[in-house]
Amino acid sequence: MSQATQRHDDTDEETLIEVRNLEKYYGDDGMFSPPPVKAVDGVDLDIKRGETFGLVGESGSGKSTLGRTLLRLEQATSGTVSFDGTDITTLEGSDLKRWRRNAQIVFQDPESSLNDRMTVGEIVREPLDAHDKGTERERRKRVMDLLSRVGLREEHYYRYPHQFSGGQRQRVGIARALALEPEFVVLDEPVSALDVSVQAKIITLLEDLQEEFDLTYLFIAHDLSVVRHICDRVAVMYLGKIMEVGETEELYEDPVNPYTKSLLSAIPRPDPTDESERTTLPGTPPSPRDPPQGCQFSTRCPAKIRPEGFEEVSEETWDAIERFREIVRERTRVELGTVDRVKRRAGLFSKYDDIDEAVKDLFDGVERPPVVDDHLTYAVEQVKAGHPQDARERLHEAFGSVCDRERPAHHQVGDRGRESYCHRHREEYDDVESAIRR
Ligand SMILES: Nc1ncnc2c1ncn2[C@@H]1O[C@H](COP(=O)(O)OP(=O)(O)OP(=O)(O)O)[C@@H](O)[C@H]1O
């Protein structure tokens, strides 16, 4: 049994933080502005008291924004965050200030997150000063205690961050976060910027502090192996949405969501020749300003459901169609400059000329049955005519399935609180595993 599982079994199941339908949009400035960035796009999750809850996902998936919104460092666009029963998204004034003591953050980059013009003592003391905690003498004593608790020495009080190594600076960041005796700490990539040998020490320190001060952690990370080691439960995030959540070991051993499977199989393996059951993650995530209308992962999903009538089309052809759709989708985002608009009026559409090349690259030697060909030909014409949106819509109409059209539900999987966001969990569809294997 891993350390993480052991600890989880020992904790009671009381929920400390309950997040419901949380949204955080950036740049939602009215009718005439571009669409907002949907950094957090309808998140539900429960964090239990005393646990370490991991949040993983590719860069830009919204992990930091979610962490910051839970702390009210960002104002939620909508939804609720109940902390011990109180919705903190609406707190104001002294209530907000009082609550803020309870929830702190440790940042990724100890290089830039500490003010280089303040001594280490001042940095750790600052939250105590801001909240008027104790007398000056008591604050000093508290800072000294904290420094020794995180493995620094009293004389470090008068030094400056630049005199410290990365690991020591992160210890200062941790001491500062603990100054006000919080219950909940967001650890935003706390070891990513450190050498591997230092990472292990900081992780051990965080585990010890958790035990000593009864802390609840939200641990945000790219590094899936660190998360496996330290977290009791983990949520996998993609384009602002939680794709799968569950107990860490169970989720790592047997991921059920196509995105989790892809992400986990992308972890480098000791034997690079071992290609067994490897799922690759093609392409890059779509823009969070223009996420897919259906499942957020639909444009890259290895288990995507096909629409009726196309079941017999070969994998190769289907793959080329999906990639072509991606290219057209990207074209709809290309802003035409003045010169292009003039050329367009004159019948010269240089910006879109290379669509023929894309089709050639994708479909050379690939079978194009008539049922596919008509739609492709129409789409290519529309792109060349400067109407990529029409092409996109036609392709969506022709080749779109439930994955393109509908947001999935979060399905319960098993009886240990696992949830996965995927249409494939509906009875009428083949399960994820057999779809991927096929
Ligand atoms: N202040 C902001 N204004 C506008 N867009 C933002 C802002 N902060 C984040 N974003 C956008 O929101 C999306 C999610 O970003 P976020 O930093 O939360 O992702 P992340 O998963 O933490 O990525 P990383 O691991 O790279 O930090 C990204 O598209 C990002 O560009």
Describe this structure in words.
With 438 residues, the chain is of the alpha/beta class. The chain folds into two domains: 3-265, P-loop containing nucleotide triphosphate hydrolases (Rossmann fold, 3-Layer(aba) Sandwich); 315-400, no CATH class. It has 18 helices and twelve strands. The chain has helices at residues 3-10, 63-70, 93-100, 110-113, 120-130, 136-149, 166-178, 196-213, 224-230, 248-253, 258-265, 315-331, 338-345, 355-363, 370-384, 388-399, 402-405, 432-437; strands spanning 15-26, 37-48, 52-56, 78-83, 86-87, 103-106, 184-188, 216-221, 233-238, 241-247, 410-413, 418-421. It has an eight-stranded mixed β-sheet with strand order 6-7-8-3-9-10-12-11, with helices on both faces. It has a four-stranded antiparallel β-sheet with strand order 2-1-4-5, with helices on one face. Strand 7 (184-188), helix 8 and strand 8 (216-221) form a beta-alpha-beta unit. It is elongated. The two termini are 34 Å apart. It holds the Pfam family ABC_tran. Residues 17-264 form the ABC transporter domain. Residues 263-301 are annotated as: Disordered.
